[in-house]
Amino acid sequence: MKKLVAGILSLALVAGLGVSLATAQEDHAAAGAAEAEHATPHYPIHHPKQESWTFAGPFGKYDKGQLQRGLKVYTEVCSACHSMSLVSFRTLEGLGYSEAQVKAFAANYEVQDGPNADGDMFTRKAVPSDHFPSPYATHEAAAASNNGAAPPDMSLLAKARGITRGFPQFVFDIFTQYQEGGPDYIYSLLTGYDEEVPANIELAEGTHYNPYFAGAAALAMAKPISDDQVTYDDGAPQTVDQYARDVSAFLMWAAEPHLEERKRTGFMVMVFLVIFTGLIYLTKKSVYANKEH
Prior knowledge:
mainly alpha; Cytochrome Bc1 Complex, Chain D, domain 2
């Protein structure tokens, strides 16, 4: 009798556990469906295009002609809203300009200086030691002029912007020395304004759809450039695609002007380490050649 009662109780317990498990699974599925329905979308909608850059790879170098075109795009388009406060005019000699050309370029800008002997601030023409001035007096003024979103400073934009590359890409990047996530992102963003808005996306007033934007489906900045907006002197195509490539390369240089020197130094260090390792191995073989272990 006791065995019968124990068996019945065991069956009841198993049945109860089964019902509880089934209920829990149903609740979990319902919660998952609700979460999926109200989940925050993953941005960017499209992964940035991986472009071919002259400065890519362990032996990459900047194309000075491209950098000069990128500077032209920045000064004629981007500088109307974006500052580049960490870049001084004298560094433009790295783009292939002479000292006289840099002085003449800097003189096109006015910067605030002072105080003078009377304690007042004043404006003067910029000199090569000055940095690119901001188009706005304050951060608040920049935000007020741009629908509440202050344009970011572009000095380090190419190093600060980039999208996480998932597995296994980030493993391969160790061997390919992929470091162009910032330029790829900037290029993709500048060329992504013409894509059609999906039916399931509603844009807030004053925003512009761009599937490559990392923060949302749209951003406050309107399409900044169009074909033939900037005149090139070297015969390069005057298209949005070319403008985007050139200014992206220029911003990479602005963020890392010593990239070529760094790569040369790194290569020499690797050669030294290989030779040094070989010498250490031969020394070890020589020292312990006649030793019993």
